[in-house]
Amino acid sequence: MSxxxxxxxxxVDGLEAAVDQAIAACDGDMRSTIRALIVANDYLESEVSELxxxxxxxxxxxxxxxxxx
Length: 69
Prior knowledge:
Blueprint: H1 9-25, H2 30-60
């Protein structure tokens, strides 16, 4: 879903189902749900950061060739 377009009904339904699943996984406790999502987001951000560092080092060391089209 792009930022300039309106979400279609299927996107909204999928998002609502994901919200319901997250709340159900935390036994209906909204604070626990938000806490779990923040922890998961922090973990994913740290993973992305580590992967970006690894890729950058690999390119610097010349392990990967850049694609020039």
